[in-house]
Amino acid sequence: MSKRTEWVAMIASGVGLCVAVVLTIVSGVQYRLAEDRGLDPGPAPAWIVAGTNGGLLVFLLGALVTVVAGVATLLQRRRATRLAAEAPTV
User: Which residue from 20, 63, 69, 77 has the fewest beta carbons nearer than 10 Å?
Assistant: First the structure.
C-alpha cells in the first residue's frame, strides 16, 4: 500500500476521534446546564449518540487501515530485500 493510503487513514482516524471527543463534550455541557436549571437531564439526544458512534467507527476503521497498511509496507520491504539478496550475481 502507498504512503498516501496511510496518510488518508491517519487523517480520517484523527477526524473521527475529534468528532467523538467534541460530541462527548457537547453532551456533558448540555447535561450540566440541565442540572444547573434543576431539571432531570435524561439521556443524550439521538444525534449526539449517533455522531459519537459514527466518529468512533471512523476512528476505528482509520486506525485499522493504518495498521494494515503499515504491516503491508513492512512486508513488501522485507520481501524486496530478501529477493535482492537471493538474486544471482553476474
Answer: 77
